Amino acid sequence: MSEWTYAPAPESSALANLRPSYRPFVDGEFVDGGGEPLKTVNPATEEVLAEVGTADRGDVERAVAAARRAYDEVWGPMPGAQRAKYLFRIARVVAERARELSVLEALDNGKPIRESRDVDVPLASQHLFHHAGWADKLEYSGAGSRSLGVVGAVIPWNFPLLMAAWKVAPALACGNTIVLKPAETTPLTALVLAEIAADAGLPPGVLNVLPGAGDVGAAVVGSPVDKVAFTGSTEVGRQIQRSLAGTRRRLTLELGGKAANIVYADAALDQAVEGIVDGIFFNQGHVCCAGSRLLVQEAVVEELVERLQERVRTLRVGDPLDKNTDVGAINSRAQLDRIVDLAAAGDAEGAVRWTSPCPLPERGLFFPPTVFSGVEPTMRVAREEIFGPVLSVLTFRTPDEAVAKANDTAYGLSAGVWTEKGAKALWTAQRLRAGVVWANTFNRFDPASPFGGFGESGFGREGGRAGLAAYLAG
Ligand code: NAP
Ligand code: MG
User: Fold this and answer.
1) Cβ(264)–Cβ(242) below 8 Å
2) What domains are there in the chain, each with its CATH number?
């Protein structure tokens, strides 16, 4: 009998309801931005999806002024229970239009439909529901109930709709208004979110969405907003912190990571393998909290790496719209080049590269799942965020050594621990310098659970009561 294989199971791209052009959303209306329009592409084919109008400085000024007026006259004075009604409405429509948003996200970002459908969009809607529930209960948050004013938010391309929801939901629930700058390569779902907000009757100016490149982000950050919320690279985060120093503007930064995923010899290895795969190959590894440094206790390293390779071989790389695809396209040529360069540095420094033999599509931006073993803590593949489907495997002998190696990083966003002993998991977690530590699981998110980092991973929390505090004046 011939070998069994998967039949194609593509989701229809028509569900995305793609339009030829999209425009900035300012003061309750879609407007022609003054900036040079950009073309957003589907990284799986490198074909243009749509033309997107961008903002110029004048648009940023108008958006911030509209957000200020809406804050002073409408949204700030509005009772929390009223604000909640709008947020519930938006959350419901995001859930109702989930299929459209999932396909649009997969097209614009390159992530597999399985993930946009099962993770990004449901979590975005949950985040909106969760915060809608808080809007009239802020006095019980422990962080006060006074809003800050106008929020300027800048988000990256790895979770475009989800990151928009992570900023918009708490900002609006706490009574602030917002000016949001999506990433240049993934502006579409944030603009559909603006459309949903307009359909929900959200008062003009409460939410403004300004597509454009980094200069638009810099203009938003540099304008007279009361708080800046940024997710992206450590380098840009640093620039923003410098530019806000000495002002009274509040700032939260959610930056990169180089998370350790620690596997003790007593762990359930097959279960750990699933968590390792999810930790680094989810979303092509474009995840700030990705478990990109695997630390394995020496006694089981050979067995674990063997089982891991066996599992990684089965990952299907390809068409993001195919429901059987596990790993989709790399979002941009620039990011693909960066992954190729850092992997080459791994070879040059003597790590041993293993590449999954999976077939890759003939066109589009793809990188095969890759595992480096024999990695030393000084190597670039152990220190720098690759932000791609590349795992570095290091070893340790004792729990103390595991903790020391895990903490030997400038970052501190997340970590994982795998062991059958609860006490060992807790002992380790207490010593890890990371905002989130997962035990016997990885990449779990919940709107009620705070997320954020230490060190070069930034500061401030998103989600939970700590996340509300970032949008309240006390
Ligand atoms: P980035 O440059 O920091 O981009 C994040 C956001 O900031 C984007 O909307 C970007 O606009 C905008 N931006 C760029 N320069 C700015 C400036 N001077 N002032 C204000 N906003 C500015 O990150 P990236 O280029 O997308 O990715 C680079 C690396 O950052 C990745 O390889 C990864 O290591 C890390 N990263 C981390 C996360 C995370 O979730 N923590 C997310 C993405 C990337 P444009 O879209 O136009 O550039
Ligand atoms: Mg795109």
Assistant:
1) no
2) 13-254+453-469 (3.40.605.10), 260-439 (3.40.309.10)
